[in-house]
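agent> Task received from the user: take the single chain below, predict its 3D structure, and emit structure tokens. No templates, no multimer pairing.
agent> Plan: (1) validate residues, (2) run structure prediction, (3) serialize to tokens, (4) report one or two observations.
agent> Step 1 OK, no nonstandard residues flagged.
tool_call: predict_structure(input=
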Amino acid sequence: MPTRDDSETHFINVDLDIYSKSDLEPLVAALGERVYVLYVGRLRRTYEAHLELAFSAARSHNADAYIRRFATLIAALPKAQRELWDTAKSREFSIAVHAQMQPFSWETVLSAETVAAAARLKARIGFTVYVPEAPRTVAKKKRASARRQKAL
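)
tool_result: status=success, residues=152
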């Protein structure tokens, strides 16, 4: 995996988020060790699975390659597990990006083939952008300043 400068905006990962009326454990089990399970279970009336590619399955470190690898894994699911995928309420490839102040702009491109693969799977492609973290000393000063102003 290439090294990166964490002071610059960069791609983090692609999560696969699935929501269903049916238990998703069999689908997750069929994907095996090729994925990391962030969460699988039921919250209220909805079953959820949140997954990432295992590093051995990721190969390239870019959103396009991650989505294509997930699509390949899903296309190879056995019939019963594929039916769980097909009947899910929501399927989303969530591209995670960590924003920083540099560079001035940052972009990532998905190939037409990758977008078509997601569409064939009836999956959305979303983006989650994480804001830069404020240095702790700045955050503490702002909280102290806000408390002083409240006291006035």
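agent> Step 4: summary for the user.
Residues 19 and 48 are 5 Å apart (CA to CA).
agent> Done.
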